[in-house]
């Protein structure tokens, strides 16, 4: 392959700009005083590197190094009077367009940024330490943004166009990407990128971030090792997938794990892991593979554990069936504001399967399958915390009964806006503690605050 072709493949899109400047690749804003020079520099960059006959002999890293070196030389040779800051900015902007994802590349490289939000050509928003802030960067045009979106989704074998205007994809580092384009996005294409840490978080990291406490970590580790079925509940951006990753690290190394996701996000550290990903229909409307299809297929793969990234629809029925038929220790996440809401949503999703099942039977099915619900919340100071650990006790009449094992108590907000409070045991020993004891996992009474509860009753 010619080097120019390889560079254009790396770039967002090799098509001419629709702004009529005749240059290859990303459109440049008309109000940019250096727009003409930038276009000429990119054209010259392709020609110079191609004339050096480097061809396909360079690896990806060497190719990027050659692009940057040649770009610096071109800028140094220009007759246009440029300050050192302008030279650096031009080199950065052009290299980001050619080698990266345009104006969002700097935020993808920033370890402190956890989420990148692009709203058409408006300023880009990012999340740092749980707080959203506005940046001065933006895409030059809607076409520029469309090119970046198309490049990202094409790399994972997906597509986005007017017939399929919504898509979930991922970056090479595993970061989750959601994009939506017109006609559904009225004001222009929109893209949201949920970044994942280069090194997956561990238990100590979540304790340091105040997401969980050491007693809760000990309890969840015992629940996972004791093969209790666990559901992680929470709102958008509360850290459900991160917690699921950490909890999966408690699974013994000799067990076979099958993960099922819409777009692969989980980063399990065990060796014996099979990762399955759903697939949308192709342009002819064929080839659709849903989460439900994958859950059914996973039952034939001899799994010790089934981990569903997120339950969203009728696959809830198949997941519960797996939990009730010998696949204990399964885990999943679900969007809900409380453990009670999580049960209601799960019940609704089972009914979406289209089977004529009485509501009471569905609730009995749910109550017999699930053992623990972990609730996550994002606090006003941006921190993500476990606010409830609830046990699913069983049925009482037509209602599923639950009891809190741990609950978050907020006492106020300090002068810096940080939430003051913590998770405390309720003093109730869960019924599943007996099941864990039979599995050889004895938990101390102090973990549940039983001693404290007895003192309060005596007083």
How are the strands ordered across the major sheet?
Answer: 9-8-10-11-7-12-13-14-15
CATH superfamily of the largest domain: P-loop containing nucleotide triphosphate hydrolases
Q: Look at the structure and give the mean pLDDT.
A: 81
Number of domains: 3
CATH fold category name of the largest domain: Rossmann fold
Helix % is: 25-40%
The CATH architecture of the largest domain would be 3-Layer(aba) Sandwich
Q: How would you sum up the global shape?
A: globular
| Structural class computed from helices and strand pairing | alpha/beta
At the first level of CATH, what is the class of the largest domain? Alpha Beta
Percent range for β-strand residues: 15-25%
**Strand runs, count:** 15
What's the quaternary structure here? Answer: single chain
- Residue runs with pLDDT of under 50 for 5 or more positions: 1-31, 455-459
Distance between the termini: 82 Å
